[in-house]
Amino acid sequence: MNYLEEIKNSHAETFDGVSEKEVQQAEEKLGMMFPKTYRDIVKEFGSVEVDSEEIFGLGVEGYLNVVETTLKEREVSQGKLNGYIVLQNIGMEGILIVVDEQDRVFEYQLGEFRNLLSTTAEYIKSLL
Question: Where are the alpha helices (DSSP H) in 20-86?
Fold first, then answer.
Protein backbone atom coordinates (compact mmCIF):
# COMPACT_ATOMS: atom_id res chain seq x y z
CA MET A 1 0.00 0.00 0.00
CA ASN A 2 1.44 3.40 -0.91
CA TYR A 3 1.54 6.38 1.43
CA LEU A 4 -1.50 8.08 -0.14
CA GLU A 5 -3.61 4.96 0.45
CA GLU A 6 -2.26 4.61 3.99
CA ILE A 7 -3.30 8.18 4.80
CA LYS A 8 -6.69 7.69 3.12
CA ASN A 9 -7.34 4.45 5.06
CA SER A 10 -6.21 5.88 8.41
CA HIS A 11 -8.13 7.95 10.96
CA ALA A 12 -6.48 11.12 9.62
CA GLU A 13 -8.78 13.97 8.67
CA THR A 14 -8.11 15.17 5.13
CA PHE A 15 -9.45 18.06 3.10
CA ASP A 16 -10.01 18.64 -0.61
CA GLY A 17 -6.98 18.23 -2.81
CA VAL A 18 -5.69 21.01 -5.03
CA SER A 19 -4.70 21.30 -8.69
CA GLU A 20 -1.20 21.21 -10.13
CA LYS A 21 -1.67 24.92 -10.95
CA GLU A 22 -2.34 25.73 -7.26
CA VAL A 23 0.81 23.81 -6.28
CA GLN A 24 2.86 25.72 -8.87
CA GLN A 25 1.50 29.06 -7.62
CA ALA A 26 2.48 28.12 -4.06
CA GLU A 27 5.96 27.10 -5.22
CA GLU A 28 6.37 30.46 -6.97
CA LYS A 29 5.37 32.35 -3.83
CA LEU A 30 7.83 30.32 -1.75
CA GLY A 31 10.59 30.36 -4.38
CA MET A 32 11.16 26.61 -4.21
CA MET A 33 9.81 23.30 -5.49
CA PHE A 34 7.73 21.03 -3.29
CA PRO A 35 9.36 17.60 -2.82
CA LYS A 36 7.47 14.86 -4.69
CA THR A 37 5.82 13.18 -1.69
CA TYR A 38 4.61 16.52 -0.26
CA ARG A 39 3.37 17.59 -3.71
CA ASP A 40 1.40 14.30 -4.01
CA ILE A 41 -0.08 14.73 -0.53
CA VAL A 42 -1.31 18.32 -1.05
CA LYS A 43 -2.68 17.48 -4.50
CA GLU A 44 -4.61 14.53 -3.04
CA PHE A 45 -5.65 15.89 0.38
CA GLY A 46 -4.88 19.63 0.57
CA SER A 47 -3.96 19.32 4.23
CA VAL A 48 -3.85 16.49 6.78
CA GLU A 49 -4.75 16.37 10.48
CA VAL A 50 -3.94 13.38 12.66
CA ASP A 51 -5.56 13.83 16.08
CA SER A 52 -4.03 17.15 17.24
CA GLU A 53 -1.17 17.00 14.71
CA GLU A 54 -1.77 19.41 11.83
CA ILE A 55 0.24 19.18 8.61
CA PHE A 56 0.12 22.48 6.73
CA GLY A 57 -1.06 22.36 3.15
CA LEU A 58 -3.03 24.09 0.41
CA GLY A 59 -6.73 24.67 -0.16
CA VAL A 60 -7.03 25.84 3.47
CA GLU A 61 -6.98 29.32 4.99
CA GLY A 62 -5.08 30.86 7.88
CA TYR A 63 -2.26 29.18 9.76
CA LEU A 64 -2.96 25.78 8.14
CA ASN A 65 -2.00 27.30 4.77
CA VAL A 66 1.59 26.28 4.07
CA VAL A 67 2.41 29.43 2.08
CA GLU A 68 1.13 31.85 4.76
CA THR A 69 2.82 29.99 7.61
CA THR A 70 6.11 29.37 5.81
CA LEU A 71 6.45 33.04 4.78
CA LYS A 72 5.64 34.17 8.33
CA GLU A 73 8.13 31.75 9.90
CA ARG A 74 10.83 32.71 7.37
CA GLU A 75 10.40 36.32 8.47
CA VAL A 76 10.60 35.39 12.17
CA SER A 77 13.70 33.22 11.57
CA GLN A 78 15.44 36.10 9.74
CA GLY A 79 16.10 33.97 6.65
CA LYS A 80 17.26 30.77 8.35
CA LEU A 81 14.20 28.97 6.94
CA ASN A 82 14.70 30.16 3.35
CA GLY A 83 14.81 26.98 1.25
CA TYR A 84 12.48 25.13 3.63
CA ILE A 85 8.74 24.54 3.74
CA VAL A 86 7.12 24.53 7.18
CA LEU A 87 5.08 21.32 7.51
CA GLN A 88 4.06 21.64 11.13
CA ASN A 89 4.28 23.81 14.22
CA ILE A 90 4.54 21.46 17.20
CA GLY A 91 3.21 24.20 19.49
CA MET A 92 5.88 23.61 22.13
CA GLU A 93 9.12 25.50 22.66
CA GLY A 94 9.03 27.01 19.16
CA ILE A 95 9.62 23.66 17.45
CA LEU A 96 8.78 23.50 13.75
CA ILE A 97 8.90 20.53 11.39
CA VAL A 98 10.34 21.63 8.03
CA VAL A 99 11.24 19.95 4.73
CA ASP A 100 13.67 20.89 1.95
CA GLU A 101 13.40 20.31 -1.81
CA GLN A 102 15.18 16.93 -1.46
CA ASP A 103 12.35 15.75 0.86
CA ARG A 104 14.55 15.70 3.97
CA VAL A 105 12.53 16.45 7.11
CA PHE A 106 14.08 18.44 9.96
CA GLU A 107 13.09 19.64 13.39
CA TYR A 108 13.89 23.37 13.61
CA GLN A 109 14.19 25.18 16.91
CA LEU A 110 15.87 28.49 17.72
CA GLY A 111 18.01 28.53 14.59
CA GLU A 112 19.13 24.89 14.91
CA PHE A 113 18.19 22.04 12.56
CA ARG A 114 18.00 18.38 13.56
CA ASN A 115 17.62 15.87 10.71
CA LEU A 116 14.74 13.49 11.43
CA LEU A 117 16.04 11.03 8.77
CA SER A 118 12.64 10.95 7.17
CA THR A 119 10.71 11.95 4.06
CA THR A 120 7.43 13.87 4.18
CA ALA A 121 5.43 10.68 3.59
CA GLU A 122 7.37 8.74 6.26
CA TYR A 123 6.93 11.59 8.74
CA ILE A 124 3.16 11.76 8.22
CA LYS A 125 2.89 7.94 8.39
CA SER A 126 4.72 8.08 11.76
CA LEU A 127 1.87 10.22 13.10
CA LEU A 128 -0.86 7.78 12.01
Answer: 20-30, 36-45, 66-76
User: What pLDDT, on the 0 to 100 scale, is given for residue 91?
Assistant: 85
Instruction: Select from 125, 124, 89, 128 the least CA-distant residue to 107.
Output: 89
**SS3 category, 44:** helix
For the beta sheet containing 85-89, the strands, ordered from the edge strand earlier in sequence to the opposite edge, are 85-89, 96-99, 105-109, 112-115
| Rama region for 48: left / alpha / beta (φ>0; ψ in -120 to 50; rest) | beta
Burial of 38 (0-12, 13-18, 19+ CB in 10 A): buried
* Entry pTM: 0.93
Q: What are the pLDDT digits (tens) for 76-111? A: 999 999 999 999 999 888 899 999 999 999 999 999
- What mean pLDDT comes out for the span 18-44? 96
Domain of residue 50, CATH code = 3.40.1580.10
| Domain residue limits at 96 | 3-127
Q: State the Cα–Cα distance between residues 55 and 90, nearest whole angstrom.
A: 10
